[in-house]
């Protein structure tokens, strides 16, 4: 049974079209498996495309009105986000002493959840993509530059 399962798996990977698999798998089963594989690929394609398009939208530099002139850079890939920050007191425009931070987040559709606890902020704050930036749950809005 194990060798049949292994052969079935190998034939499935080979898209079940090759004549070498014909002796192992009946024609109807080959066609049904191929249809299921195609349907699965088609069904997941929009999800992958959405993850990529939203990570592209989130990636970039932002203006944070609560920290004027301070770096806010999001580097997103798929559902993961890395945010590089520089904070001053209160901003970074007038030669204030600054400190660098790096925090992480997760992207799910048009939402991003970030753990700012490493810099003394909230642990899991949610933000929403607005078309020109991120509206955070605490009322702050980062505008994309």
From TrEMBL:
Keywords: Signal
Signal peptide bounds: 1-22
Domain of life, source organism: Eukaryota
Name of the protein this chain belongs to: Uncharacterized protein
Species: Phaeodactylum tricornutum (strain CCAP 1055/1)
């Amino acid at each position: 049974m194990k060798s049949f399962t292994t052969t079935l798996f190998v034939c499935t990977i080979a898209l079940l079209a090759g004549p070498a698999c014909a002796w192992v798998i009946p024609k109807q089963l080959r066609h049904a498996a191929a249809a299921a594989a195609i349907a699965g690929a088609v069904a997941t394609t929009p999800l992958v495309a959405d993850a990529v398009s939203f990570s592209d939208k989130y990636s970039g530099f932002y203006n944070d009105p609560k920290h004027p002139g301070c770096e806010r850079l999001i580097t997103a890939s798929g559902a993961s986000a890395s945010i590089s920050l520089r904070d001053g007191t209160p901003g970074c425009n007038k030669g204030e002493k600054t400190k660098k931070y790096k925090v992480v987040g997760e992207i799910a559709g048009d939402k991003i959840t970030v753990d700012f606890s490493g810099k003394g902020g909230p642990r899991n704050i949610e933000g929403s993509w607005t078309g020109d930036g991120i509206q955070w749950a605490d009322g702050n809005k980062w505008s994309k530059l």
